[in-house]
Fold Serine/threonine protein kinase.
Amino acid sequence: MNDTDAYLRQKNAFFDLLDLPPDDRVGYLAQLAATDPSLADVLARQLESAGQPLPALDACGREPALPRVASYRLERELGRGGMGRVWLAERSLGDARQRVALKQLLHSAWTDEARRRFERERRILAGLLHPNIAALVDAGTDADGAPYLATTYVDGERIDRYCATTGASVIQRVQLIRQVAEAVAYAHRKLVVHRDIKPANILVDRDGRPQLLDFGIARFLVEEAITTDGVGPLTLRYAAPEQLSPEGQDAGVACDVYALGAVLYELLTGASPHGDVDDPKALISAILTREAEAPSRLSRLRGVDADLDAICAMALRKRPEERYASAGALAADLARWLARQAVDARRGERGYRAKAWLRRRWPVVLGIVAMSTFAIFHIVQQDRLLERTRREHEKTKAVANYLVTLFRVATPNKTSSGDVSVREMLDQGTRSLQDKLARGGDARSLVPLLLAVARVHCELGDHPKARDLSTRAAQAAGDQGDVMAQADALRSVAGESYHLDDPKAFHAHTQEGVKLLESIGETDSDLYLAQIGNLAIGYYLIGEAEKSWPIFERVHRLNEYTNMERYILGLNNAAGLALNAGECQRGENWLRMAQEATPRRRAPNPAEDILIGRNLAWAALCNERPDEARERIDAQMAKGETFWGKAHPELASLYNDRAEIALAQGDLATAAAAADAAYTLASKGLPPGHGITTDAQGLIGIIQVEKGDYAQALPQLEAVVAARGSGAPVEPQPHVEQVALERARCALRQTPLRERAQLEPHLTARNLAPWQRRLVTRWLAGCSATTAR
């Protein structure tokens, strides 16, 4: 048996023992002692030191006694293993107080190897003083003679969780690893190899500074390795290939470079370079043979490029001599990446140095190129600008003339007496425009008027009329060959299709408008940016969300520097869709960006601010913060009633959100009242069968099921499911409605649920929020219990 197999056998046997009841462990150890007494002895001591009940070793099954250390007060345990424990302690130095992490070996774990490791860790830490390494504060023995060491206490969280919870950018993640690599390089200069670098051993403190911890299996380069019966207590997922060999105890600085590469890879991709592998033998095989996929292909972060791919690949090379020569070399390459300089990992790649030089010197190069091509570029741009200016001037003049026409079409008597309403004037003016278009009037001047009137109808909530006028405008512009006007009209048609709950039409018209603009090279206009933002929404609405996120990222980058209002609106829309798709953290990050940008807006936008606040409430619920969600949605309800009035249909969506949040909290009375209010408002103010109305009706049925009112819930849910149709749901609520319907049928008819395979897509849908998943799981269990009786 080689060292790797011996290590795995000891590890697996220990976990097998933990799975047994305490009284059965003695028999297991007795059987093992007959065939492998040394292994049985090691396992017995591990159990005792970990505080595991074992009658033969500890008749009371009690926890090991607390260490008694002079000048220290133990506050709480920070962690434990088979060999010892770590405490958060307060050290008294006269009137001064200092919080430390106090580490102690357990008496029962005192093997010769463990003693030597502990003593060596103290010697190593005593020689290290670096701002990114937790420093040794004190060492000695407790009242019982057990050795201990105390290091500075790092009040923070492990590096991977810190990056996830703060939504750290690629640059911030690289900066963190660069600092850790510099700390490791410092340790290497002190002839110390860490050998167990992993996210759990890198904490980021409250100042955002990473701290390297736990030199428990570190060693001096000039010192012989401590011999063991296996490969030693390393962490497989971050172990270098050479550490898994029989000579792994002698692995040098290259193993730390490899581990740094593995941690960097995980921070960039959220995945292991070895793939989704848990079985130890399969993991060892992957470490030895599998090449990691390029991070840029897996990462959802913006900015992971070919240079970072090359840096990770070089750090993770299988052969130590092919990696970076030192942790310092890795840190230097990361610094070069941060400075947008050429990285050594791509040295020798054809044309790379030239491209990197251009990337750094692009302002100079761009200036030379711009000067040499200025005349041609200027002429083309001026022509385009003049054409756009002429169009806008014609639109402005046409709209101004139309406002006068609105009053002319009303009878003089009504106009002078003030009896004519805005709606009547608008309708009469609309008929006049349509007549002119039918008689062959100038489409170039009539199209912008049709679109202006369509947008007024949209503001008044008359979306069918607005879509009809926009469609006429698109047809007229197309007949005249005016591509820009046609694309603008198609955007309006798509927008009205969205309001009318017709996602396929929204996507089709948007896609047509994008292709028209690209056909004439209009890819830098505001209209094009607006259209590709809508294209991302369209992909989501037709069930192809994976195509949406890259487009959204591109649009955000472009809008941030060209149109702040559209930038904020785009972030808001994208965040809402991300939350709907179950991308809770992505959605909340985009909303925070929108919220931070609102002070840079040219003018206040109350409707948009309400939408941001509503989506932030939704994000809080999605991320398991229901109390915050309720507080936020109540605040937006108050703002909405002030801005729109208490009877406006826009409030229906807010009431639906309030109902969902209350349902998640178990407040069924509030949930039912909010869902009823949403249904009443939507039924009165929106077209029949509108999605918001259906959502409210579905929530009413879901709440009735949760209250046990199955007889009332059944017809509600049957009507909602029929209205949804047979297509795959894009939003999470239809999944919940399907399971609620089956729960009601089961309760009323005392019949079992449909085949599990039929319900499985609804129970396991990726975009279900955690509270929704708990709800449907409980319903399923409740129905199973009912039918069992």
In short: Residues 64-153 form a domain with the Phosphorylase Kinase; domain 1 fold (CATH 3.30.200.20). The mean pLDDT is 80. The beta strands are 72-80, 84-93, 96-105, 136-141, 147-152, 156-158, 192-193, 202-205, 210-212, 219-220.
